[in-house]
Amino acid sequence: MEEQQPIPACMEKWDINWLLHRAAQRVGAAFADETAKFGVSPRGQLVLQALANDEGQRTQLKLGAMLGLDKTTLMSELDKLERAGLILRVPDPKDRRVRTPMITDKGRELQKQAGDALAEVERAFRDRFTREEMAVIRRALINLADGEAPVHGSCL
Amino acid sequence: MEEQQPIPACMEKWDINWLLHRAAQRVGAAFADETAKFGVSPRGQLVLQALANDEGQRTQLKLGAMLGLDKTTLMSELDKLERAGLILRVPDPKDRRVRTPMITDKGRELQKQAGDALAEVERAFRDRFTREEMAVIRRALINLADGEAPVHGSCL
DNA sequence: CGAAGAACGTCCGAGTCAAGATGTTCTGAT
DNA sequence: ATCAGAACATCTTGACTCGGACGTTCTTCG
């Protein structure tokens, strides 16, 4: 990877799209550094978090749709998490097609630790702004992020 | 691609990282839809825009660093643009290693049209917010996007 | 019942991305 | 002048993404 220019060098053409992607890139990198210490990807942590808060009520497809992950991408992520013993795919007695992902105790443990660490990272970002600014930012991001239509490329 | 859940279904765990990525995803998709009408990717448009505003003063490496693109990714993008006759790689008489990317008249033409169309799309997003909000959002994104350290994965 | 269609998880293949290696050219120090 | 090292563009390689196809299972309707 090349050394990136500090941003001020090219201020003329900053459109929302580029800014958003770049910001997501940066924040994502900070998150990735943190989750790497726990041996999971940010996506893995995201999945674990969802499973921890939402007790095995979701099929793999629903889970992927909720998190904005492609089904095959979620598959390989679940494979990794399962191999690491952090989740289990539990057959649904009611519907034999379904193999509900369930977080294990080990997974819950790790998720809690990683989640706390990430909260710290996130707080560092939040502290760059006032409370009022954060409220605006949050509302704006939710506004932009929300929407019914499925999205093409994920990169989550 | 699966139908995505409307966002409100899972509000508990929205961290900045996820919101940013999702927002970037959505806005990026809107931009991609628009640029597709002109036969280029958003990334292609980004490169053209940079070249149009910055008259062939950058090597490929510098250009990639400025835009946050990996050198190999930029390479293949330049290949496409060159094949489409939108740019040229001009040998630098001063330094035979360098093949400076230059936008062609055709490229400039297309960039202008696509740029106008994208400005329209962007305005639609801006109109969701007040002027004061936009100022906050813009400052916040610049704050987050800025930074010296190179970033791992691009996805731009 | 039985058949048609939908939903689930999985697999496959084309396309994309980026780290590292390579060959050429430039620069700076001896 | 020459040699070592850096910079540039390119190529190679391995991993990842994602749309689409597949087999199984469920549901609905005749």
Plain-language structure description:
2 copies of one chain form a homodimer. Chain A has 156 residues and is mainly alpha-helical. Chain A has helices at 16-36, 42-53, 60-67, 71-83, 105-126, 131-145; strands at residues 87-91, 99-103. Chain A has a single domain (13-143), classed as Arc Repressor Mutant, subunit A (Orthogonal Bundle). In chain A, strands 1-2 form a two-stranded antiparallel sheet. In chain A, α1 packs across α5 and α2 (42-53) crosses α5. Chain A is globular. The model of chain A has no long low-confidence stretch (mean pLDDT 87). At the A-B interface, α1, α2, α3, α5 and α6 of A face α1, α2, α3, α5 and α6 of B. Chain A binds a DNA duplex (30 and 30 nucleotides) through residues 1, 59-61, 70-73, 75-76, 89, 95-99, 152-155. Chains A, B: Keywords: DNA-binding, Transcription, Transcription regulation. Chains A, B: Residues 13-146 form the HTH marR-type domain.
What structural keywords apply?
homodimer, 156 residues, mainly alpha, Arc Repressor Mutant, subunit A, two-stranded antiparallel ribbon, globular, DNA-binding
Secondary structure elements and pairings:
Two copies of one chain form a homodimer.
Chain A: H1 16-36, H2 42-53, H3 60-67, H4 71-83, E1 87-91, E2 99-103, H5 105-126, H6 131-145
Antiparallel strand pairs in A: 1-2
The structure holds a DNA duplex (30 and 30 nucleotides).
